[in-house]
Amino acid sequence: MLNGSYLARIDDAVETCRPSTLLYYPPRATHPDRIGPQGGRCLTISIAPWKLDSIGGELTGIDRVVRTREGETSWLATKLYRETRSGDTSSPDILIGLTLALSGHVARCDRRDRTRTPGWLERARRRLEEECTGATSLRALSNELGVHPVHLARRFREHFGSTPSEYRQQRRIERARKLLAHGTLPIARVGLRCGYADQSSFTRSFRRVTGMTPGRFRRLAAKPEVASGPRS
To answer: What is the pLDDT of residues 98-130, one digit of tens each?
Structure first.
């Protein structure tokens, strides 16, 4: 982005890109974007998919939009823009070199972003943890966050190792284990408190996660620990 602003759809949310922002779109990606209300000017570099291996090999594995405003990336993009206007006979070779350097920076940003948990995804995790006994659907949660349900499920698994539904189930069983180990509530009541409609569904879910029934878990948790070591 050279000046003005650009409204880009990234991760199913519309974000405003300011000057010095670099956006990478993978091959065949749609661009449902638009220039901001005050206008704007962009430099667009198009690389044919069949040239990615030779010109930007590190980009071939990226399947999503990448956005960055890092200083070095912006500096390289500015140099590339100036080189397109120089008309020098060496410009083609310089442009290829700058494009290669930019592709490396984009790939680095993509790797880092995939390991960093986005704020909206962390909000989803906290919501599922705090309201694990509720019945909020994946679609309702994704609508609240402003992302597509499929995108939410995919990114959630990437960052937390399970789907949202599996994560909520794990938190329910974790809460049930505490109630069983440290309380006297009947098993059916424990299941109700943890969001299960009846004791049979609670027992099935508990066994699937822990490998034992709630009753067996309670009996094992109630056994007194045997002291070890010499007595004084």
So the answer is: 888 888 888 887 777 767 778 888 889 889 988
CA dihedral 213, 216, 218, 221 (to 10 degrees): -120
Q: How many domains does the chain have?
A: 2
User: Kindly report the CA angle at 79 between 75 and 81, in degrees rounded to 5?
Assistant: 115
* Domain boundaries, position 136: 119-222
Distance between CA atoms of residues 9 and 107, nearest Å: 19
Q: How many residues does the structure list for the chain? A: 232
Query: Are 58 and 131 in a shared domain?
Result: no
15 or 228, greater pLDDT: 15
pLDDT in the model for residue 57: 58
- Residue 91: CB atoms within 10 A of its CB come to 14
Q: How far does CA 150 lie from the centroid of its chain?
A: 11
